[in-house]
Design the sequence.
């Protein structure tokens, strides 16, 4: 069966510090991968998605970047965090671009102070 | 792109009551999913239901694609049903991107 992991689970970082969040998927090959952010309140916003190694599409211009160095690894990064980067970051995967069920990881709760 | 709207935004129930959550979407969809976000933030897949009706225990969902809405039914609610319920959709114009509604926050009181 497929599983998706995210780490760390929680993170408190000062403004201006770098960020690296990691997401890995097990039990499948060539998944589509997604990063979402859930800010205060409830809505989830798609940040990045990837259909293959090195292929990243950005949905929202911002202080963040994503990379996919391996087939089942997706990394969310920032060189300098802003207060507004605080939120709950969720990684997801699916088998095909569309349409297919997306499955979410446990999330990383980021607080920028 | 697709817009997804959910109602009601908040719902308070007594344990044992039934409820219906609604999701309206602005365009035709190829993917419609319902999720439950638990208190720890985990998004749990409930249904993949671009059309038709599905049931899983006390939960069932119906999507009427031609009328662009989906309904999630919760019967005999339990306190463990509390949390936020999200509807999310996409279509070929969106690629693989799920567009989420703002959610319905359900609180089931004992």
Sequence:
């Amino acid at each position: 069966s497929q599983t998706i992991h995210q780490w760390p689970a929680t993170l408190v970082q000062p403004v201006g510090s770098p960020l690296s969040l990691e997401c890995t998927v097990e039990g499948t090959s060539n998944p589509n991968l997604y990063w979402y952010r859930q800010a205060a309140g409830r809505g989830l916003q798609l940040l990045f998605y990837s259909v293959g190694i090195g292929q990243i599409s950005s949905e929202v211009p911002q202080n963040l970047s994503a990379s996919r160095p391996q087939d089942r690894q997706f990394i969310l990064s920032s060189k300098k965090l802003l207060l507004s980067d605080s939120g709950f970051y969720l990684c997801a995967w699916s088998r095909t671009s569309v349409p297919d069920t997306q499955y979410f990881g446990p999330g990383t709760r980021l607080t920028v102070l | 792109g697709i817009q997804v709207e959910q109602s009601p935004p908040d719902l308070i129930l007594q344990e044992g009551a039934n409820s219906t959550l609604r999701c309206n979407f602005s365009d035709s969809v190829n993917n419609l999913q319902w999720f439950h976000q638990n208190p720890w933030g985990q998004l749990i897949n409930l249904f993949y239901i671009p059309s038709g009706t599905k049931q899983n225990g006390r939960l069932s969902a119906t999507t009427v694609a031609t009328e662009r809405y989906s309904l999630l039914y919760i019967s005999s609610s339990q306190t463990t049903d509390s949390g936020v319920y999200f509807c999310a959709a996409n279509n070929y114009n969106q690629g693989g991107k799920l567009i989420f509604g703002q959610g319905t926050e359900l609180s089931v009181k004992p």
Q: What stands out?
A: Chain A touches chain B through 29 residues (CB under 8 Å). Chain A has a mean pLDDT of 91. The radius of gyration of chain A is 13 Å.
